[in-house]
Amino acid sequence: xxxxxxxxxxxxxxxxxxxxxxxxxxxxxxxxxxxxxxxxxxxxxxxxxxxxxxxxxxxxxxxxxxxxxxxxxxxxxxxxxxxxxxxxxxxxxxxxxxxxxxxxxxxxxxxxxxxxxxxxxxxxxxxxxxxxxxxxxxxxxxxxxxxxxxxxxxxxxxxxxxxxxxxxxxxxxxxxxxxxxxxxxxxxxxxxxxxxxxxxxxxxxxxxxxxxxxxxxxxxxxxxxxxxxxxxxxxxxxxxxxxxxxxxxxxxxxxxxxxxxxxxxxxxxxxxxxxxxxxxxxxxxxxxxxxxxxxxxxxxxxxxxxxxxxxx
Length: 312
Ligand SMILES: Cc1cc2nc3c(=O)[nH]c(=O)nc-3n(C[C@H](O)[C@H](O)[C@H](O)COP(=O)(O)OP(=O)(O)OC[C@H]3O[C@@H](n4cnc5c(N)ncnc54)[C@H](O)[C@@H]3O)c2cc1C
Description:
By secondary structure, the protein is an alpha/beta fold. The protein has two domains: 1-51 and 104-168 and 268-312, FAD/NAD(P)-binding domain (3-Layer(bba) Sandwich), CATH 3.50.50.60; 76-100 and 169-265, Polyamine Oxidase, Chain A, domain 2, CATH 3.90.660.10. The chain contains nine helices and 18 strands. The protein has helices at residues 8-19, 59-70, 105-111, 146-152, 158-165, 204-208, 221-225, 235-246, 293-311; strands at residues 2-4, 25-27, 39-42, 45-48, 75-85, 88-99, 117-118, 126-127, 131-132, 135-136, 140-143, 169-178, 189-192, 198-203, 214-219, 254-265, 275-276, 281-284. The strands form four sheets. The chain has a seven-stranded mixed sheet with strand order 6-5-13-14-15-12-16. The mean pLDDT is 96.
C-alpha cells in the first residue's frame, strides 16, 4: 500500500492504515514532511509559509489537536483578527485560530512519527494494476492537489483522472518580511478585502509568541498568477502594499517569496470526503470540502479507514 504525499492528508491516511495493521509506505517528493503546512527557518526561528493558522470544529480532529497541545506543539492564538476593506478597518471575530510555536510543519511531523516516510522520492507514474513507478501496490493514495495528481495518473485510470479534472485550483505567493523593529500597533492578523495585491497579512511574532518583527503576507490569486514565472520580482510590490496598509515608516530589512502554484482549491460542494475507485486509486486532500487543514486531515483519515476496510 503506497501513499504518495506527506502532507497532513497523506499522513492521516497512512496513520489509519498502520493502525489497522496494513503495511504502508509514504513517498514524499520534498526533503521534509508537511506539504502546505510549511515552515522554514530564518535566522534560527521558524516562519509559516503555507497555512497561516488552523481552526477546529470536528470532535475527532479536536482530539488530535489536544495531543499536539499536550506535546507543547499547538496553542490557541486568537479569535479576533482585523479586516481591511473599502469601508475601512474593523475587528473580525470568528472561530479560535490555532498556531504552532515551532511552525505548523511540526504538527505533521508529530503525526508522522513511526510511519515509514521516504523523502526526496517523487513518484512519476501511477498505472493500472495499480503500479507505482513500475512497482506493484495493493492500492495507491494520491494525497496532493489535483493538478499534481493528474501529472502522475495514466489516463486509463479513468475514475481518478475524472475526479482530479473536476478540481479547480488557485495560486498564491507568500512573502516573509523581516523589519528592524516592531513598528506596527498590535493587530495579530488582517484579512484584506478587495485589494489588488494582498489577501491576508499576519504578525508572525504574535502568532509564534516571540514578538519578532516579522510579517507574513499572502497575496491574492490574481496577483500571484501574474508572477508565477518570476515570484521573487513580486517582493517590492507586496512590501509596499503591506507598508501602505499598516502605515509602516521603515522598509523591511529582508524579504523571502514563496510560490504556491496550487495553493487553494475551489470549495467542493459534494458530501464525499475522498475518492476511492475499483482501480485501487484513492484521492485525499483539502479539495474534498472547505479548503482547510481540518478538511485535509479528515479526508485522509476517512480514506485510510475505507482502505483498511477494503484491504483488511
Ligand atoms: C498560502 C496558503 C495559506 C493557507 N492558509 C490556510 C489557513 O489559514 N487555514 C487553513 O486551515 N488552511 C490554510 N491553507 C490550506 C492548508 O495548508 C491545506 O488545506 C493543507 O495543508 C492541505 O494538506 P494536504 O495534505 O491535502 O496537501 P499538501 O499539504 O499540499 O500535501 C501534498 C504533498 O504531496 C507531495 N507531492 C506532490 N506531488 C508528489 C509526487 N509526485 N511524489 C511525491 N510527493 C508528492 C507534496 O510535496 C506535498 O508534501 C493554506 C494554504 C496555502 C498554500
